[in-house]
């Protein structure tokens, strides 16, 4: 007996992927998850959603799943995501992010999967000429993470010209926050992302925190980023899926709020929302950080029909704090 059509979510046990699975279920879709559980958690996948432990670059595994579940679209999250780590371990990033994605895309072509939604990044722009950054600006990544993702965009672009497949490459700005209903959030054994680190400092899970660089060409000298709520990001993928199903052309599209906050402003917000004044140490710059990344989101709004619901830094921080309070101590 064959299964009804499903959506394959690679990295569905991870931070963004687990929110995507919830959004798909709520939208009446049927997700299946492939995750190697290197950074994801089995417990992040809701009961009833099939989870296959393995690599998205494993052609035998993916090919078998595409046939068995009649996969209609792949949403590809599985990747390594830490910019300074990519500077230290470029070959690992190219293997996991680029080589595995190429294998996954080849499987999609071979088995006739019509749509791919790809998790790309603002890091493809490098040091932008101006902010907000629109999709017409040149791509010129300044770290291996951004380069490993941009190569996948190129593979998708060329593949979609040669084969009957369409894609959306969503260029995420800084993803943060947690499911507003408290069902999912960011669990990481070694957190590196700013809002996660700051809420951990507020909750006493770490002894204060560092600010990496206060001599950038920004008003307060710390880096500026555009923080987007993970639930709005998941919604953007649903919008992209609807767009591709409608037969529309492949595209690359920023996902952000078109609003930047400095590292120091984010820390102030976490202190205010939590009511805790933790220690903040001003440090040297971290390798690979552009000074300012703020999205133009006109394309997401006009072409995907994306409507952000949680465009508010305090809300993002509140949801991140709520999740961090619930996390079992074994997972930080
Ligand atoms: N950052 C910081 N202290 C930390 C973690 C991050 O000052 O403990 C800064 C980092 O240098 C960057 C910004 O916060 O300027 C966002 O970094 P994050 O790692 O969250 O995301 P990225 O922009 O690198 O994807």
Automatic annotation (TrEMBL):
Pfam families hit by this protein: Epimerase (PF01370)
Every NAD-dependent epimerase/dehydratase domain range: 7-256
Molecular function in Gene Ontology: UDP-glucose 4-epimerase activity
Catalysis performed (reactions): UDP-alpha-D-glucose = UDP-alpha-D-galactose
Cofactor: NAD(+)
Assigned keywords, A-Z: Carbohydrate metabolism, Isomerase, NAD
Keyword NAD appears in the UniProt entry: yes
Family assignment from sequence similarity: Belongs to the NAD(P)-dependent epimerase/dehydratase family.
Assembly, per entry: Homodimer.
PANTHER family: UDP-ARABINOSE 4-EPIMERASE 1, UDP-GLUCOSE 4-EPIMERASE
NCBIfam families (alphabetical): galE
Protein name, as recorded: UDP-glucose 4-epimerase
Organism in which the protein naturally occurs: Rhodopseudomonas palustris (strain BisB18)
């Amino acid at each position: 007996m064959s299964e009804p059509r499903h959506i394959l979510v690679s990295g569905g046990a991870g931070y963004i992927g687990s929110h995507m699975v919830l959004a798909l279920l709520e939208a009446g879709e049927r997700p299946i998850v492939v995750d190697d559980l290197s950074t994801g958690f089995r417990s992040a996948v809701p009961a009833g959603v099939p989870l296959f432990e393995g690599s998205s670059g494993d052609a035998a595994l993916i090919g078998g799943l595409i046939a068995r579940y009649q996969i209609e679209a792949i949403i590809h999250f599985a990747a390594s995501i830490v910019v300074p780590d990519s500077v230290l371990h470029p070959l690992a990033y190219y293997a996991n992010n680029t080589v595995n994605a190429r294998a996954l895309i080849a499987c999609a072509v071979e088995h006739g999967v019509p749509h791919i939604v790809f998790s790309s990044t603002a890091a493809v722009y490098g040091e932008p000429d101006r902010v907000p950054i629109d999709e017409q600006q040149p791509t010129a990544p300044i770290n291996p993470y951004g380069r490993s993702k941009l190569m996948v965009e190129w593979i998708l672009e060329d593949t979609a010209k040669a084969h009957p497949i369409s894609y959306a490459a969503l260029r995420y700005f800084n993803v943060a926050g947690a499911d507003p209903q408290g069902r999912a959030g960011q669990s990481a054994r070694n957190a590196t992302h700013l809002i996660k680190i700051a809420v951990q400092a507020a909750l006493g899970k770490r002894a204060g925190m560092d600010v990496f660089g206060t001599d950038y060409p920004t008003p307060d000298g710390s880096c500026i980023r555009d923080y987007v709520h993970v639930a709005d990001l998941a919604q953007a993928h649903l919008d992209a899926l609807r767009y591709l199903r409608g037969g529309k052309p492949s595209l690359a599209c920023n996902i952000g709020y078109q609003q930047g906050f400095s590292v120091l402003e984010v820390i102030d917000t976490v202190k205010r929302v939590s009511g805790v004044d933790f220690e903040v140490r001003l440090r040297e710059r971290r390798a690979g950080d552009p000074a300012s990344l703020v999205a133009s989101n006109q394309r997401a709004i006009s072409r995907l029909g994306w409507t952000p619901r949680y465009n508010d830094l305090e809300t993002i921080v509140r949801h991140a704090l709520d999740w961090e309070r619930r996390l079992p101590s074994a997972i930080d």
